[in-house]
Amino acid sequence: MQKKLINEIFLMRSISCLSILLLHSLARAYADENNTVNLLRVLLTFGTPTFIFISEFILSRSYPNELPTNFWAKRLKNVMVPYILFGTFFAVLKAFEQSLSTGTSLLSSFGQFFWRHLLLGDFHGYFILVIFQFYLLHYLFHKHLQKWKPSVVMGSTLLINIAYLGFFNFVKPYPTEIGVYIWEKYYWIPFLGWVFYFSLAYYCGKHFSVFINLLNRYSKWVIVSPFVLGFICLFLYGSKILPIISSKRVDMVFFTTSMIFLIYFIATKIPKVPKIFGWISQYSFGIYLIHPVFLAVMYLVYKRMSLEIHPSLLTVLYFFASLLLSIASTFVLNKIPYGYYFAGRISIGMNDKKVRNRPAPDRKPLHG
After folding, report:
1. Which residue in 50, 87, 335, 343 is a FRET match for 77, CA 20 to 30 A apart?
2. Which of 245, 268, 263 is nearest to 18 (CA)?
3. CA 269 to chain centre
4. Rounded CA gap, 245 and 97, in Å?
């Protein structure tokens, strides 16, 4: 079966990727606390859950009934292997940094980072572990999800998602080293913190025509809700009720959902999605994995040179340099035999023959 890919997905994927890149660039450029910048960073955190949403959306849209026989082999090769290889590489980099700064054994530092990266997802590649849990949920439950009532499933998963994140957002951590670690980082990994995005993506992809019709029918709410929900997120941050900058805040579930709807709605109204977004979308997986390395290197170089550059200009430099370097690295690695195992394959572009024109809201989706 040829995959049924939708041009709007390329816009959504590229915007989510660029939002994370800008988020991290701001964090590097503004070392000191800046309330205005932090407010922007709060809103930019929608990028990671949007990227995770896309993985299930495409899966549900591509295989509405049965999964292909090579389902697991393909995903292990193209998704999990890059997670393992890049996680190992990133552990080496961190081990060198720690060894040089503290004088600890390089081998000991590597072992510490290695198991935390690969087993606990304790680096920026953790989103791959979440995506893989979505694959497992789809594999186990897609036949049941076809029969269950969408409103019940999405309502139930929303409550579970809110309760899970709310617990870690508002309850103080258990006063042990493990407890603090779970509260600070590990609670990101289990699917319970993302399960609403899974059910939403599944039914939006499965009932694509209904999804488009609802976007058009409630277009005013689609346009207004991100502003209202975004304001609520900023209020909760500014008032110290939720004083963290993270996509794992309970309020971000609603804001991210509104942004997903808004971006997709806007994309359906554009006669042709700009090629630049399709190009960035093709390299998005590699950008997600590689850009923190270039940001860290540029940050260290900047500090060593003792230059004085305004943070706003520094943000622009970090953003575009890390973007272009990540794309170039992904391109080169895909030209080297088996290099794509390190940074992921370059995905299908908008001009690929497998890409189908989006169906009109009153027609059934085209089947590949």
Report:
1. 50
2. 263
3. 24
4. 25
Question: What's the burial of 368, exposed, middle or buried (CB within 10 Å: 0-12/13-18/19+)?
Answer: exposed
The C-alpha atoms of residue 256 and residue 238 are separated, in whole angstroms, by 19
Q: In whole angstroms, what is the distance from residue 61 CA to residue 339 CA?
A: 29
Q: How far, rounded to the nearest angstrom, does the alpha carbon of residue 221 sit from its chain's CA centroid?
A: 24
CA 194 to chain centre: 11
> Residue 169's closest CA among 196, 155, 188?
188
CA distance 354 to 361: 21
The token duo for 181 is 């670690």
Taking the CA atoms of residue 315, residue 319, residue 322 and residue 323 in that order, the dihedral angle to the nearest 10 degrees is: 180
Give residue-wise pLDDT tens across range 39-64: 999 999 999 999 999 999 999 998 88
Rounded to the nearest 5 degrees, what angle is found at the Cα of 16, between the Cα atoms of 169 and 334?
120
Q: What pLDDT is attached to residue 308?
A: 86
pLDDT digits (tens, 9 = 90+) for 106-145: 888 898 899 889 888 999 999 999 999 999 999 999 999 9
Q: What are phi and psi of 355, to 5 degrees?
A: -80, 130
CA distances 248 to 34, 270, 286, 316, Å, are 21, 31, 23, 26
Using an 8 Å Cβ cutoff, are 199 and 138 in contact? no
Start-to-end C-alpha separation, the chain = 6
Q: Residue 121: left if φ>0, alpha if ψ -120 to 50, beta else—which one?
A: left
**Structure confidence by residue, pLDDT tens digits, 208-252:** 999 999 999 999 999 999 999 999 999 999 999 999 999 999 999
Q: How many residues does the chain have?
A: 368
In one letter, which amino acid is 318?
Y
Rounded CA gap, 29 and 298, in Å? 10
- DSSP class of 186: G
- The confidence score (pLDDT) of residue 368 equals 30
| Distance (Å, whole) CA 263 – CA 16 | 10
Asked if 227 and 158 count as a contact pair (C-beta separation under 8 A), the reply is no
**pTM > 0.85:** yes
